[in-house]
């Protein structure tokens, strides 16, 4: 993301929409007022509810606080796979406590990331990621909340671990970025696929094909803000208010009316997250 590009203009409203995965803290929210300002902007274009997601313990604590500040905000908590080396007994105990909070609607984001090991200082190695992923799967099953997956270049191993452990009732692949074969494999298992602004990128050919094979009852939309701003604003700061751009791009790919797709994905999000 380049801070040099101005923030996108407000899109034409499209309601209702739920942002199934965002990071309000990384968008610049620090307290109740600044979080409310971001959510107010989103609500002005129809994005009435958001799930703010943690990737470390500090972010997990913040996400739960934010969900209590504003009834339009819900939280998901976990350690990102690249940070799985911080999942000691103390971290596990705190995550269990936070995940049990009624404003927490998912365990995530967790999973496997095979891109960063060897490139990022302090990144958890693959073996440690797998161990951490298994622990989060177990947590989601014990507290009966959805499991929110981060998957980067790890399709086969990720599906294998899920099969080996036995998945919880609801599994969400956040920011789905794989090909149609992976999409069909996930669909066959009953998993939910969430699409971000990357689906609007013209060079994301396999992802755009994958978006067309997902049934209506297994699809969500998200921003992953402040990252992955949709076309034509790629490289600009992203926020939940940008989600209508992604919904319209996804609807065009799937041959659906944007307003109808907004209703479909909202119904799915409310069902999956029980909000």
Automatic annotation (TrEMBL):
What's the superkingdom here? Bacteria
Q: Which UniProt keywords apply?
A: Hydrolase, Metal-binding
* GO MF terms, alphabetically ordered: hydrolase activity
Q: Which NCBIfam families match?
A: YchF/TatD family DNA exonuclease
Q: What is this protein called?
A: TatD family hydrolase
Q: Which organism is it from?
A: Nocardia amamiensis
Q: What is the lineage of its organism?
A: Bacteria, Bacillati, Actinomycetota, Actinomycetes, Mycobacteriales
């Amino acid at each position: 993301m380049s801070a040099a590009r101005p923030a996108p203009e407000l899109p034409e409203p499209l309601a209702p929409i739920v942002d199934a995965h965002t990071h309000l803290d990384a968008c610049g929210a620090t307290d109740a007022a600044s979080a409310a300002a971001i959510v107010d902007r989103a609500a002005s274009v129809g994005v009435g509810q958001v799930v703010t997601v943690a990737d470390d313990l500090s972010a997990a604590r913040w996400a739960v606080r934010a969900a209590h500040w504003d009834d339009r905000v819900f939280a998901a908590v976990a350690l990102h796979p690249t940070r799985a080396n911080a999942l000691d007994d103390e971290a596990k105990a705190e995550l269990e406590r936070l995940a049990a909070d009624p404003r927490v609607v998912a365990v995530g984001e967790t999973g496997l990331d095979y891109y960063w090991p060897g490139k990022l200082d302090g990144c958890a190695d693959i073996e440690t990621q797998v161990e951490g992923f298994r622990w989060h799967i177990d947590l989601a099953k014990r507290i009966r909340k959805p499991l929110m997956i981060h998957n980067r270049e790890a399709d086969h191993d990720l599906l294998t671990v899920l099969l080996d452990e036995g998945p919880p009732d609801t599994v969400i692949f956040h920011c789905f970025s794989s090909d149609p074969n992976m999409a069909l494999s996930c669909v066959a298992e009953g998993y939910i696929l969430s699409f971000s602004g990357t689906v609007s990128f013209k060079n994301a050919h396999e992802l755009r094909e994958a978006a067309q094979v997902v049934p209506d009852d297994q699809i969500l939309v998200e921003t992953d803000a402040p990252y992955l701003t949709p076309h034509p604003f790629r490289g600009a700061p992203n926020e939940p208010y940008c989600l209508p751009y992604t919904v319209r791009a996804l609807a065009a790919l799937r041959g659906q009316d944007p307003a109808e797709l907004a209703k479909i994905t909202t119904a799915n999000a409310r069902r999956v997250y029980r909000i």
